[in-house]
Specification:
Blueprint lengths: L3 H9 L3 H4 L4 E3 L5 E3 L10 E2 H10 L6 E5 H21 L9 E3 L6 H10 L6 E4 L2 H8 L8 E4 L5 H12 L3 E6 L2 H14 L4 E5 L24 H13 L6 E5 L9 H20 L6 E3 L23 H19 L5 E3 L3 H5 L3 E11 L15 H7 L10 H20 L5 H23 L6 H8 L3 E5 L3 H4 L1 H6 L5 E3 L9 E6 L8 E2 L2 E3 L2 E3 L2 E3 L9 E5 L5 H4 L10 E7 L5 E7 L4 H7 L4 H17 L5 H15 L16
Parallel strand pairs: 4-22, 5-6, 6-7, 7-8, 8-9, 9-10, 10-11, 11-12, 14-16
Antiparallel strand pairs: 1-2, 2-3, 4-13, 13-14, 13-21, 15-21, 16-17, 16-20, 18-19, 22-23
């Protein structure tokens, strides 16, 4: 057992004190726990204890764990931060946020956003017809906005116009010149005036992973010339009074506050000019942009940002107030579509380690008397291993390993000998790592070479299904073990998923000293489930995932804090079964079963199997069709040791 200070160092090694925003903490038994935002002074609620409780119910990893209190906190902090900025700057209009459904369309998320956002008249943003249909079925509070972005056909437009007649504040944002004629035609046919917005391309281009979503080369929005033409066309159609909102998207996950301020300033210039041309604009929608500090670095990098929530809100309010006052115009209602910042924190992907491939060993191996002399030569390297000669020893070990492999390929040594050679090499790597750990100023070349000998921990999940951004755009997410934080981790590993794809690997991790290529982990123990938590996954990951290797959606569990400060189950959605994913790719499970039955029956007739074996094969096939697509632990296994 470590002392308290050392335990804190282990916890801090994963930088959780930075990216965790006070919502994760270490329990007295070394487990990782979640902190109730409403009672931050209370002890954290243990995640391993929760997982053991869920496993006893038959709910296993991998799973998405949604924390209702974290989602509630995100909505509260965003809205109250704008309220503070508005009060401090004498701003004369309110803030009305909307959540972009595309960020996480799951009903367990959308319904809670509507519920938790009701005190602030929080609304939704729909970017497609299915999203609009979804949004129209939710009971939004009076005053909440339903903003419709994306390319719209006549049916989409018709729904939006009729929704307003039903009392829903549905704003059809014009994204392209072609939509204008559709909107005018449908409004005339229905004899109803729509509530309209216009998306304007800003020339200001922001930095970050999604820079292409900003600037005048972005995919959506009208150019300056097209905006002027729109004003003329709406005036001619006697519909200029319908134009109530300007949408100017700042960008996504914007890392630098200066980019935000400059983009808002440009948006204000368009806003005041459109009002000068007669458009009765009431809302200024500044789109997304508010970042999440995935690394806790508080720097203007692709996975972090150099501003706080209060600074973000203050910069927007100050900039808009100054621009409107200078133009002698009333302050507009401020709107943002900060989806990532609302939901990212509220979801955690939890998986378990199935096995480990260790790339060193602690026990020495002695060559056999009749082994090739190179095995003895390699084993002798330990005799001259010292801090001054680590590079030499590593070079020699790698030389002998390659020579012995070549001898095996030529048939000079047998498979048992080359197996001993591999074990000697792993032992030497372990000894070299021990010396390097005690040696200051290790040559970078040695560190780089040793990094190639990181362990591989096989985790029970699909990267392509559950963390598509990690694979596709090198998104960095905080990752750490959920237990044994009262022990110093002795291994360094990359995480490999259970797909048969070499890309299914995570090899960049948020640590105290920055981004590293190996995660500190503990050596696995027999009969103990070793859990890994991947944090801040609430935005996009659930809906962008694919069916690579036909791995389906994981189990989803929603929890919240009870009056005693413990985490309790609120809702459960079972992960996809094999039958469900087969149906998703156009296979009828019943037809698969019948086809397999025919194959097995032929095997009975040919005498390859007997009727009892046929029954066992069919029972196993049926059970597998209804089973989880991921590795299923036997029910008698202990949850966490």
């Amino acid at each position: 057992m470590l002392d308290t200070d050392t335990e804190a160092e282990v916890f801090n090694a994963y930088a959780a004190h930075r990216w965790g925003a006070g919502l994760v903490g270490r329990c007295p038994d070394g487990a990782l726990g979640l902190v109730d935002p409403a009672r931050t002074e209370a002890a954290p609620a243990s995640l391993p204890d929760l997982l053991g409780n869920l496993r006893a119910r038959g709910i296993d990893t991998p799973m998405i764990l949604r924390v209702g209190a974290f989602l509630r906190r995100s909505l509260e902090t965003l809205n109250t931060a704008f309220e503070r900025a508005i009060a401090a700057n004498g701003y004369k209009a309110p803030y009305r946020g909307v959540f972009p459904i595309k960020v996480n369309q799951q009903s367990g998320v959308i319904d809670r956003i509507v519920q938790y956002g009701r005190p602030w008249q929080f609304g939704l943003e729909a970017g497609s017809k299915p999203e609009l249909i979804l949004a129209l079925s939710r009971d939004l509070p009076p005053g909440a906005l339903l903003i419709c972005n994306g390319i719209k056909d006549a049916e989409f437009v018709r729904l939006g116009i009729l929704a307003r007649k039903a009392g829903i504040n549905c704003v059809l944002v014009l994204e392209s010149p072609g939509e204008i004629d559709t909107v005018i035609a449908e409004a005339r046919r229905l004899k109803e005036k729509p509530l309209l917005g216009v998306r304007i391309k800003l020339t200001r281009r922001v930095s970050g992973n999604w820079a292409d979503s900003s600037g005048d080369r972005s995919s959506f929005g009208l150019t300056t010339k097209e905006v002027v033409d729109l004003i003329g066309k709406l005036r001619e159609a006697d519909m200029l009074d319908c134009l109530a909102l300007q949408h100017s998207h700042l960008g996504s996950q914007v890392p630098a506050i200066m980019d935000i301020r400059q983009a808002v300033d440009e948006a204000c210039r368009f806003f005041t000019e459109l009002r000068r041309l007669g458009a009765p604009l009431e809302y200024l929608d500044l789109g997304g942009g508010l970042g999440i500090d995935y690394t806790g670095e508080a720097r203007a990098t692709e996975n972090s940002m150099n501003y706080t929530l209060d600074e973000y809100c203050t910069n927007i309010v100050e900039t808009v107030r100054y621009a409107m006052d200078e133009a002698g115009q009333p302050h507009p209602v401020l709107v943002t579509e900060s989806g990532r910042a609302i939901v990212a924190t509220s979801s955690i992907l939890i998986t378990d380690v199935l096995e480990a491939a260790y790339f060193d060993r602690s026990a020495p191996v002695t060559p056999e008397p009749d082994d090739h002399h190179m095995l003895s030569d390699m084993a002798a390297i330990e005799g001259y291993l010292s801090p001054r000669r680590v590079q030499e020893c590593l070079n020699d070990a790698e030389y002998y390993r390659e020579e012995l492999r070549a001898l095996f390929r030529r048939g000079v040594i047998d498979i048992e000998a080359v197996a001993r050679a591999e074990q000697i090499f792993l032992y030497l790597v372990g000894r070299i790592k021990e010396v390097v750990a005690r040696t200051p100023d290790v040559p970078p070349e040695v560190a780089d070479e040793l990094a190639e000998h990181r362990d591989i921990y096989r985790i029970n999940m699909s990267l392509f299904q559950s963390l598509p951004d990690v694979w596709a755009i090198d998104q960095i997410l905080p990752i750490m073990p959920l237990q044994r934080l009262d022990e110093a981790p002795t291994r360094r590993a990359v995480l490999s998923d259970i797909t048969c794809d070499s890309d299914g690997k995570i090899n960049h991790f948020v640590l105290e000293d920055g981004i590293e290529n190996a995660l500190p982990v503990h050596e696995l123990r027999p009969a103990e489930t070793y859990y890994i938590g991947i944090f801040l996954v609430g935005a996009y990951q659930e809906t962008l995932g694919d069916l690579h290797n036909l791995f389906g959606d994981t189990n989803v569990v929603t929890v919240d804090f009870n009056d005693d400060g413990a985490l309790e189950l609120v809702d459960e959605v079972e992960g996809d079964t094999v039958s469900e994913v087969l149906a998703a790719v156009e296979y009828e499970p019943r037809q698969c079963l019948d086809a397999f039955k025919g194959i097995v029956e032929r095997a009975v007739r040919s005498g390859r199997i007997n009727p009892r074996q046929r029954r066992e094969m069919m029972d196993t096939y049926r059970e597998a069709l209804g089973g989880y697509t991921y590795y299923e632990h036997p029910p008698e296994e202990d949850a966490h040791g």
